[in-house]
Design brief:
- This protein has a single domain, classed as 3-Layer(aba) Sandwich (Aminopeptidase).
- Helix content is 32%, strand content 28%.
- The mean pLDDT is 92.
- The chain is α+β, with helices and mostly antiparallel strands and 148 residues long.
Amino acid sequence: MTIEARLFEEHDLNKIKELLVLYEDLGYPTITEDLVNRLKKIYSHEDYYLLLLIKDDVIIGLSGMCKMMFYEKNGEYMRLLAFVINSNYREKGYGTLLLKESEILATQLGCEVITLNSGNREERDNAHSFYKSNGFENKSSGFSKNLE
C-alpha cells in the first residue's frame, strides 16, 4: 500500500473519473468537459493549488486552495476552497492526513493562517466536527450573493 499527497499535474486529467467522484462526494456534481476546463484554468493560475491524496495509484482526496493576502495586516494566508475524501475512504485518517499536508504546503508558501468556509447545512455537520477536531475555530459567518 502506498499513499502520497502531491500537487495536481495536468496528466492527472487522465483520471478524470476519480476526480468526478470526488466532486460528487463534495456535493458539486459536474460533467467531464466542465471539470477538465475548470481544472485546467485553476492549474494555470499561480495562486491556486490543488493537492491530491493518492492511495495505490487512485486519487482518493483533494484539497483545493488559494493563497491570498490579508487586507487587515501584512502577510498572506491560505484559503481552503474545496476539501473532500472519497466517501469509501472516510473515517480512516485520510482526511486528517490531507489536511496536515495542506497546512504544510501553506506554511512552505509563507502563509500564517489557513481558513475555510463550510455550508450551514445538516449534511455538513460531520465536516464541521472534523475541522474543529483538527484545530479550526468557528470565527466568522460567510455570506454570498448571486450576481446572475
